Amino acid sequence: MAIAWVYLIIAGLFEAVWAIGLKYAEGFTKLWPSVITIVAMAVSLYFLALAIKTLPVGTAYAVWTGIGAFTTAILGVVLFSEPIHFSRIFFLLLLLVSIIGLKFSAVN
After folding, report:
1. Crossing angle of helices 86-105/57-80, nearest 10°?
2. Residue 82: is its pLDDT beyond 60?
3. Which has the closest alpha carbon to 1: 103, 99, 97?
4. Do 13 and 67 meet the contact criterion of CB atoms below 8 Å apart?
5. 5 C-beta neighbours (distance < 10 Å), count
6. pTM of this prediction?
7. 42-71 residues labelled b (16+ CB within 10 A) or e (exposed)
8. In the chain, where are the structural domains located?
9. Which of 37, 44, 58, 41 lies closest to 8 in space, CA to CA?
């Protein structure tokens, strides 16, 4: 089962790659950012599918989207100078705590 969590983390990180890729692809008008985005989508879904073979689908999906959302929000600040303030940090930390909580409360 531990490998399923590794698959899920990989899937979540690739979700962030394709979310950021959407920004660079500019509505799929730029070729290479579009290709990278589509490949990242496929990789993300592939690893999610592997994880769901073992993990409960509700837990896996929530953790997948949580990892993607958390990582994308951080990358938005780093790459695009999106604003960062106390409330944003607070809620990102709550998201991180929720992801960790779901991992440790999973029955499988």
Report:
1. 150
2. yes
3. 103
4. yes
5. 16
6. 0.91
7. ebbeebbebbbebbeeebbeebbebbbbbb
8. 2-105
9. 44
- Write the pLDDT tens digit of every residue in 21-65: 999 999 999 999 999 999 999 999 999 999 999 999 999 999 999
Residue 84: exposed, middle, or buried by beta-carbon count in 10 A (0-12, 13-18, 19+)?
A: middle
Q: How many CB atoms lie within 10 A of CB 85?
A: 7
| Terminal Cα distance for the chain, rounded | 7
Q: Given this model, what pLDDT does residue 106 score?
A: 78
C-alpha span between 13 and 99 (Å, rounded): 13
Q: How many residues does the chain have?
A: 108
Cα separation, 21 vs 35, in Å, equals 9
Please tell me the distance from the alpha carbon of residue 64 to that of residue 57, in angstroms, as a whole number: 10
Residue 87 burial (C-beta neighbours within 10 Å; 0-12, 13-18, 19+): exposed
